[in-house]
Records
---
Amino acid sequence: MEVDILAIAAHPDDVEITCGGTVIKMVEAGYRVGILDLTAGETGTRGSAALRKKEARRAAQTLGVVYRENLHIPDAGVENTRANKLKIAQKIRNLRPRTVILPYWQGRHPDHYTTGRIGYEACFLAGLAKLPLKGKPHRPFKIIYASQYVPTVRPTFVVDITEQFDRKLKAIFCFASQFSPPKEMQNLFPSRADIHARMGSEARHFGHMIGVRYGEPFVTRETAAVDDIVKMPVKSV
Ligand SMILES: [Zn+2]
């Protein structure tokens, strides 16, 4: 099993929320996309790990990805260890993606920013021949960081997901245990309507930055190259 694009995230539903529209768009463009979740989200107050597993499978079908696996690193315990990095690096070698999507390397939740950091290091390690890993060395060509969880960061680029937004929401709502809490918990956790509104306003905000209805933000560490300055998108004035 090989993929063109691999999205790596800390918890089941992170990919759907931060880059689900982009994943759908790339699947529609004909690319093979995979998802690697590092934890099963078992410390979350809502929903058991077994339920979230089932939800993750349904969401993967909605996105149209060809691969989704969970590394079962302890939830709320994603740590920058050699063992964790080698586990991820092994998957990168097996799947041989050209592009990897990681969570942005700063933020509120330690699992998110740690995944961004160890994901990057795993991409590097996967290309080293002498490590105790199976298969041929492989290093992804491109790493992009999904930055929606850190809306104060100015994105390097935004993907137009106007056509994919409804299906992105459908994929998010596959995780019903996270968004439809029992009545007594409704004050503690966001309701479906809250999530719908938040996803909509965030996607509108980022879409506005490139002159479209809905968008998803990404950051790259390296500078983008341009060949034709006449065909550059996004209006200046
Ligand atoms: Zn998360």
---
Amino acid sequence: MGGRSVAGAGQAGQQRIRVDADDRGRGEPLAQPARGPGPQPRSTTTGWGPPSSAAAAPDAPRRSRLREYADRLRSVFTAVDAGRIDDACERVNALLRDTRAAPVLTRHDDEPWHLHFHAAGEDWARSWAASMATALAVVLGNPVSDRLGVCTASACDRVFVDTSRNGTKRFCSTACQNRVKAAAFRARRRG
Ligand SMILES: [Zn+2]
């Protein structure tokens, strides 16, 4: 399975879905939502989240709702990782349903027409979750479904889309890879 065939997923993979269970440590604000497959809008605004004007400074209840969705999105990766593809697909279907995900061509903020995956004016958290659930659905609906992975570093809870050529990615990042390698090296030296 070459990199070409996972182009859509690959772009999604550039944006790790952050699913930190609390606000300590590894958590960073969710930056940009995953981009979808197919032609990208010409503008720099992604078509995958709410309009930028609506995305400023989400309040705590909104963040809390997004975190709940993030937990459910993460569970899709863990299901795939455990070889439970049916379970993963059912979880994504439930997310698509609950987030009311739907492709909608839209135009706002002087942008050209582009594709959103939620209705205009949809709830902030639901908008982001709808976009991410759609991205996962695209991956799971293709032969590349096993490219969804969970970082194997012991102190990391990140998930990733494996866009490597040979599909053998085990870590979310080179940081985790290096940390595990260094720990293994130290363990060997200690004998
Ligand atoms: Zn990691």
